[in-house]
Specification:
Elements: E1 2-4, H1 7-19, E2 24-29, H2 35-47, E3 50-55, H3 75-84, E4 89-91, H4 95-98, H5 116-120, H6 124-139, E5 143-147, H7 151-163, E6 169-173, H8 193-214, H9 220-228, E7 236-244, E8 259-267, E9 270-278
Parallel strand pairs: 1-4, 2-3, 2-5, 3-4, 5-6
Antiparallel strand pairs: 7-8, 8-9
Helix pairs in contact: 6-7, 8-9
The structure holds adenosine monophosphate.
Residues 29-30, 36-37, 39-40, 146-147, 149-150, 173, 175-176, 183-186 line the site of adenosine monophosphate (AMP).
Amino acid sequence: MQTITTVAELRRALAKVRHVDKRVGFVPTMGYLHDGHLALVAASRAQCDVTVVSIFVNPTQFGPNEDLSSYPRAFLRDEKLCRDAGVAILFAPDAQEVYPSRFETFVEPGELAKSLCGAFRPGHFRGVATVVCKLFNMVQPDVVFFGQKDFQQCAVVRRMAIDLNFPIEIVTVPTVREPDGLAMSSRNRYLSEEERRRALAINRGLLAAAHEFRSGERNVERLVAIAKGHLETVDRLQYLELVDGDTLKAADSPLRRPAALCAAAYVGSTRLIDNVILALPTP
Ligand code: AMP
């Protein structure tokens, strides 16, 4: 595995790979890797000849009062995990490499970025779309892998890839969970043991609603209420919304189209997100 920190060096390394027509898979991350990230790497290894992982804690997607400075970092550990997972290139630029002085050009996503997290984290998806666009141009992959845990991020990036004509296949990988159901996240490390126990309510609520959905419940209000009934142990529920799977706007009731039940909640001072897809059985 090569660890690379500059775009110029990355281009040189990838030119050699492209010369022999290898399929390049790309997994963008902010590091502090866990099994969720490694599932994306495994998916890339299964579908591509060469896997590139980026580790970059992107300042433009954090709000002024968010956790940019305290975001967990463990570069040497991450590097070893990547090497052991069969990553070919680990790209770990610093902020100056990605955003040189006088940087001023951003990618502005549209409607998909306005609901759910977008409503509570102004500018977040602008930062995400901008860095993903830049990383796509730097790596020029054939396939990119994102996690379903960040459902809205997947939708925003898919839209951006179409709108800006990136010839890149985008693969969404199912959410990897701890044995007790908590969605794996780099931010889980902020949770105390007691908070971690209370955080389980999020997945429990989503699963309860999904169970009722599978049993035939199609009423949006009732499905949301079922999930909400489990969420009393979180400290602050930011949103719990059943949205249309394509538009990410409030789903029409009764459900007749694929939808996603999405939640964001604070447990202590840690903000956690999770979701479950409610796919209608094919007729
Ligand atoms: P992050 O480092 O949190 O920016 O995440 C990098 C990528 O890993 C994103 O595509 C995330 O959706 C994905 N990811 C994060 N957590 C999980 C998880 N528990 N299961 C699957 N993918 C995940």
